[in-house]
Design a protein that fits this description.
The chain is mainly alpha-helical. The chain has one domain. The chain is 67% helix and 3% strand. It has a two-stranded antiparallel sheet. Strands 2-3 form a two-stranded antiparallel ribbon. It has a two-stranded antiparallel sheet with strand order 5-6. A hairpin with a 2-residue loop joins β2 and β3. α5 packs parallel to α20. The longest helix has 29 residues. The radius of gyration is 22 Å and the shape is globular. The protein starts with a strand and ends in an 11-residue tail after the last helix.
């Protein structure tokens, strides 16, 4: 059959079913890129691995188009994708015309390989494999962190970690911590998981936020607060129905899980307490200072470099018409404070404005806004979980990256693809 290969067994797909080639290539490409990030945690970097993973994703994208994966998406989103891709082609040609550095152009081209994730995720049956991929990545990330952490001991401070991260001298715990980027998905699928997966989810998320506190990182706590808020607003749960679920699903298993969480909580508190005694740093106070360093929480938010300096630099450098159509792929911003080119823009919103101007930014947010609208109006109950994740990252896009080379972009594209798929009563994310 065209576009398909036969397989006896592949990650849950038996020989009676056909595993499509685009799915296999997508999983392979994403896993290679994840491996690249793991090696970077050990201060090892081989760009050939990154390029190989991205190349395989481009092959997956080609196969997905050949297999007709666009047909699994709603027509309005197909039209949106085609317009977005055509404008991206214009940005590429404009970057070539301006003779942008090839290194920076490749940096901006590679993220488009993640569109293979979007197309593959549109076929809901593929999520039986995709879910396992995310789960295995999460387990691997925990293993890497637990292997590297003993090198640091309890002497973990933001200043020390940043210094080591830049030196490439020893394995980098900070980089390994970033491998847990799939934690929002693991948290939202917690109630639908096996006992073993629930334990792994609790351990992984616990480690993630414990280290986030050590590193005095603000965004993880903002993300968690927003995620909980979105989930609470759109989840109708009463005390009576919760009690019935506990009895129906087994009180013993619930008590075991509760006990494990309690043990892990006190273990985490003990680690936190010893780290404070070792370093003399009161982490909660330092984190609070980072939230209020410019006065109030609102003042600190508005004066964040990603919202304050980055837009100024972009508008200052751009020609008049480039405000409308951007500076093309491969653009760079000169920052006097660093004495050189800032090759990355740590804001999804301003990265779009930087490369494609107002037009490209509006194109992106037009498609994303449609998903948010469907989420708030609850038009597709079976897609709410993925819509929560998309809404979360759109709201955070002024402060965090949204479309770059990091594998988190691939995860976001998976959630986008699921949210854009044709309505189906069955929710494959949770079954």
């Amino acid at each position: 059959m065209k576009g398909y290969i036969s397989s006896q067994t592949y990650m849950g797909l038996t020989g009676r079913k056909k595993a499509n080639l685009s799915l296999i290539l997508m999983v392979l490409g994403m896993s290679i890129l994840f491996l690249h990030e793991v090696l970077k945690s050990f201060a090892i970097i081989y760009m050939v691995i990154s390029y190989t993973g991205s190349f395989i994703l481009f092959l997956s994208l080609f196969c997905a188009l050949n297999e007709g994966k666009l047909n699994y998406l709603e027509r309005k989103y197909v039209n949106w994708l085609l317009v977005l891709w055509f404008f991206a082609l214009f940005m590429l040609l404009y970057g070539i015309l301006l003779k942008h550095d090839l290194r920076f152009m490749s940096r901006d081209i590679w993220p488009f390989a993640y569109f293979s994730c979007l197309l593959v995720a549109g076929k809901k049956e593929n999520w039986k494999v995709i879910d396992k991929m995310i789960y295995f990545h999460f387990i691997a990330a925990i293993a890497v962190i637990l292997y590297i952490w003993p090198i640091y001991g309890m002497d973990i401070t933001r200043a020390r970690v940043m210094k080591i991260t830049m030196s490439w001298e020893i394995p980098r715990l900070y980089w390994a911590w970033g491998l847990l980027f799939g934690w929002p998905y693991m948290l939202l699928t917690y109630n639908y998981s096996s006992l073993a997966r629930k334990i792994i989810t609790a351990v992984g998320i616990g480690i993630f936020f414990l280290l986030a506190l050590f590193y005095e990182k603000r965004l993880p706590f903002i993300t968690l607060s927003l995620l909980i808020l979105l989930r609470i607003i759109f989840t109708k749960v009463t005390l009576e129905t919760s009690a019935k679920k506990v009895i129906r699903k087994g009180l013993v298993r619930k008590l075991i899980m509760f006990g494990i969480i309690i043990i892990f909580f006190f273990g985490g508190f003990e680690i936190f307490n010893r780290a404070q005694q070792k370093t003399g740093v009161v982490y909660t106070r330092e984190l609070h200072h980072r939230f209020t360093s410019e006065g109030s929480l609102l003042d600190t938010f508005l004066r964040d470099d990603r919202l304050y300096w980055t837009p100024k630099l972009i508008f200052k450098q751009a020609e008049g018409y480039e405000i409308l159509v951007g500076q093309g792929l491969g653009s760079t911003v000169y920052r006097a404070s660093t004495g050189g080119l800032n090759t990355t823009v740590e804001s999804g919103l301003w990265a779009f404005m930087f490369q494609g101007g107002i037009v490209y930014t509006l194109l992106w947010y037009f498609g994303l806004a449609n998903i948010i609208k469907e989420f708030f109006y609850r038009k597709k109950p079976s897609l709410v979980l993925s819509q929560v994740l998309v809404t979360l990252f759109v709201f955070l896009s002024p402060l965090s990256t949204l479309f770059d080379m990091y594998p988190l972009t691939g995860y976001l594209m998976l959630w986008l693809g699921y949210s854009m798929s044709r309505t189906n009563k069955k929710n494959y994310m949770t079954t």
